[in-house]
Amino acid sequence: MPVITINKRYLARLLEGKTTDKSLEAQLSKLGLNVESINDSRISVEVTSNRPDLIWTVGLSRAIRHFVHRTRKVRYAVKGGDPAISINVGSSVGSVRPYIAGLVARGLKLDDDSLADFLASVDKFSDTFGRARRKIAVGMHNLDFVSGQLEYDAYGDEAFRPLGCDKELSYKEILEDTEKGRRYAGAITGAGKRQYPALKDSNGTLAFIPIINSERTRVTKSTKDLLIDVTGTSEYLINKTADLLAANFIDMGGEISRVQVNYGKRAVLTPQMSQDDIVVPIAAIEGDLGVKIGANNAATLGGKMGYAVSYTGSYMKFTVPAYRFDVLNDQDVIEDLAIAYGYDYIRPVPVRSVQQGSLDPLTIFRSRAEEGMIGLGFTQMMNSYLSNDALNFTKMRLEPDGSAVRIKNPKSEAITIMRTWIMPSLLKNISLSLNERSPLEAFELDMAFAMKGRKASEEYRLAAVSTDPKSNFNSIKSVFEALAGELGIAYGLKRLDHRSFIPGRCASILVRGKEAGLLGELHPEVLNNFGIEEATAALEIIL
Amino acid sequence: MALHRYERLVLSALKGSGALDLNSLTKACGIGTDEVLWALENLGRRGYVGISRTGVSEVTLTKEGAEYAKEGLPETRLLDKLREGTILVKELSGKDGQIGMQWAKRKELIRISNGAVMLSDRGVSAMEKGLDGERVLRELNRDSGSYGRLRKENGNVVSELIKRGLLSVKERQRISMVTLTDAGERAVDMNDEEGIGALDRSIIAGRAWEGKSFKTYDTDVQVEEAIGARRHPLARNIESIRRAYISNGFREVAGPVIDSAFWVFDSLFQPQDHPARDAQDTFYLSGLEEMEVGNKEYVRRVREAHTEGWHYRWDLDTAQEAVLRTHTTSVSARYIYDVLSGIGSGSSKRELPIKLFSLGRIFRNENIDYRHLADFYQSDGIIIGNGLTFANLFDTLIRLYSWLGAELRFKPSYFPFVEPGVEIYAYAERLGEWVEIGGAGMVRREITGMRRGGINVLAWGVGVERLMLLRNAGVKSIAELYNGGLGWARRMPIV
Prior knowledge:
heterodimer; A: 543 residues; alpha+beta; Phenylalanyl-tRNA Synthetase, Chain B, domain 1; Phenylalanyl-tRNA Synthetase, Chain B, domain 3; 4 domains; ten-stranded mixed beta sheet; B: 495 residues; Arc Repressor Mutant, subunit A; BirA Bifunctional Protein, domain 2; seven-stranded mixed beta sheet; 17 strands; 40% helix; elongated
């Protein structure tokens, strides 16, 4: 989940009043946001990934103001009338990055704090919720330097002067030679001749989208009027982002005008400031939460979460503010009401049921086998299911083969396969126990994995290892017989040649005529591989 | 106070003479040196004997020296061969032959002329007496010796053997003298007490104990550590969790470790472009065929929920990839679907509410080190019922984790498949802080497919290892719970 770092001075200004660290932390926590760190000048907050509106400091402060009732009524509305600007969407961009929305914000009074915060918020939003700008990206321009009809399309390689650069670069050069270009190159999926999405006005490129804006329209703190573009892969999401940005600029003192986007014959005006109404009976709210709230109280709670609420009889209508993305239906509204009500105040109520609990039969069988092994003097170990060829095969004098389930994306050589048997894990345990008093006897009953054709099999196995001068084939065989007796397993033993064991001192265990394990005295080379210097006998059974 | 037999022997031997050196003491006791040393250590600790030590240079055989002590020096073996007649130099091949000739030559035991080797006069007499060096080796093969004494008895031979790398010299503290203290003297007197020591069959069955007294034991005596086989501490914790579930009426179920992304992510409303699904966090597996996903109708519902909720093109192939489950919630997802589709089709006669839990390994693609693991345990629970409430969820969690003895708190949080969502915190007294132990919530209708106000589902997942950190002061990090040595498993207290 995204962590945002906020300038506390700016936040205090937005909250329009004094707050202490402690009360701020408590309020955020009640909203479900964890404070990661806080110092004299900054606060870092973890924002849940369903609330992109809270990634913006303006949005976060709005939520706190609503929550503590310290808010003036704000109408998040846009100026009607003719659109300020129009953007024609060209025919080539459809397969690359099909959607664009825009808005114009006028009369802003930016300063160092608010500008720095806004730029940081734009980056955080596009990186996280925008999935590194693949899904959504936001660009901004000084409106004074934008002129004429705007065109959004995919183009061939062209040059312009990107933001923060003292010379012209081509789109291709930006992707290959600049840090930003390399970082976000993955967001450009186009191929062929016209593969670079860009927004242009009559003077050329305004933005190479979604990589970088032009130096020509750089936004500074003296910029009063802004043009914002939002581009991406989902029309719904970019339009909602435009709504969210409009709300943010309104809170920053700006006035919003709409932008017309022409997709061929279809014209769309953004921001739309779309607001859904969600109607839900009070009984459903109380039924889900298990607390008596009452419609009047529910309306107050809704207001704390930014909804406009009205009700007639038992039906309540919640108008979802335009800046919210995540409210799909009544379930999301009910969660907001629960948050506003306070989880700490929800009194636990028992579930009525008269059922009996029960363990998985396999769990019961496993604990019987484990008790048996402990009774025989073996200490239980727990090891990772993950392994590597060296441990699972090579150290055991085996060739790595196709029997192991392989990790497709290993991060290190330590984890490349799922273990196919447990014995190597136990030998590793023994190798870490050489200072311990003999006998070194350990067992593990857990899972191992194997490829069966192109499917993976998962099985429970029991392995036991005994390291002691007196350990040999006979001693491990008597351990096995005692265990088999306890578990009521009928078995046969048959001489087995296995490279991990001394020739002539290994047997396979047959249960109903099928191989179900093996036991014997480990080959001294295997012991050398693990640094074990005493005779070691071992068994492994598939359960 | 009872003394061990060895301790008694030592004290009695000292009682006669007051003070003895180690050799005499050992002889007087009539037991081995190791036994005497063991007894001295115990007695010294209790202040019954005074032990004075001096530093000595102790000479022992090196590995090569030990070999020669058994087989003889290479030059001796050469002399043996020459006894049968002359040998040509070129016949003396091999390392052993070369070394033998070099040393025999240096000691003038042989003569060489015209490429032939023969015994010298000195060689002949050496053969009769035996070589000095060899005698030293044989002596040291029985027991180590002090450098000073060996030098006095054998002269330069010793330094020659050291130079040849056959002997090594180490500084050691050796016991030079043992004296009996007053406390020791009293202890001997007391130990002369009459009575039965160890019981045996004849004493018990033959009632030979009747009318006799028993010798007593020292309650402060140092005894050997008893080492029993035991269950793994983490396994004990897992037992506690299982016990809590079944005593609250839950039935245990299980599901695959290797599963499709569909059951691990998609069915839980986790969008396909979510960072948690990328290769940095999740283990993907290679070489497996397309994994099982839900039936057609369910896949359609999941596709619709993703498209409408997350605004992207949901892809079936991505859902069919094989992953190592990142939570046991995948098991819950299967059962939610199974139970509810059964109820939906009217085929299920199961009584509601249905309470299920699962417990098993989960995986994160982490760089492993002493603090970070790639596999852990998690337990997941669900209740499927009519009109279940958020308040029911809190109550259930409090009951399930009451055995922790820690207060629980619930904080709002977000998980894609539940609404409302909760983070569960437990107060860790020994850390003095609230620790997050898991997440919970009411499962979205998009996943259950049920209508509002009807059947709903409570779900939660709680880590297992964290709980141990909360309770067990001995556990420093989660990583030490796995892949460790027997010492840890033998001694870590179980809380």
